[in-house]
Amino acid sequence: MADYCDLAPGHPFHGPYHDQEYGFPVEDDDTLFERLVLEINQAGLSWLTVLKKRIAFQQAFEDFDVARIANYGDDEKQRLLADASIIRNRRKVEAVIHNANVVLALQQEHGSFQQWLEHYHPLPLADWTKVFKRTFRFTGPEIVNEFLMSTGYLPGAHRDDCPVQARILAHNPPWAR
């Protein structure tokens, strides 16, 4: 069976994500938040759908500026639910706004979202899932797994024989420490 390392290279959407982002360590809180938002929005849909809508998500959510999104009220929520260029799921939109507030609280308590992740690293997936479920909304096991793999906290984004894997290891992702 072919996997992402076989299918993504050369694809107009999957290729750049696979080659330049997926599995590389992420330290910037807004980028971490973007990955969480994209994974939440992927639930029940294909990753290709999310990647095709990524620019629209970036525009709709103001480049995933956590502080701005945390202040979204009913007007912004209605704007998002009316925006046909993104995924208009009320539970997902509400989770994004709620989770932005959670990230702000984590920044206050831990210094950053990234430092909060480091505080819990390393954990097995089942324990990560428990931490995410009690901290965030709309974060089931698959969302947590993909978020943590995509940001370098869990292994598995690439096969060992994938050329991208060596580049990721050169960046010393948390899972390899």
UniProtKB/TrEMBL annotation:
UniProt xrefs under Pfam families: Adenine_glyco (PF03352)
Keywords recorded for this protein, A-Z: Metal-binding, Zinc
Positions with a binding annotation for Zn(2+): C5, H18
BP GO annotations: base-excision repair
SUPFAM superfamilies tied to this protein: DNA-glycosylase (SSF48150)
Stretches that traverse the bilayer: none
Entry GO MF terms: DNA-3-methyladenine glycosylase activity; metal ion binding
Source taxon at top rank: Bacteria
The keyword Metal-binding appears for this protein: yes
Name listed for the protein in its UniProt record: DNA-3-methyladenine glycosylase I
Natural source organism: Aidingimonas halophila
Taxon lineage: Bacteria, Pseudomonadati, Pseudomonadota, Gammaproteobacteria, Oceanospirillales
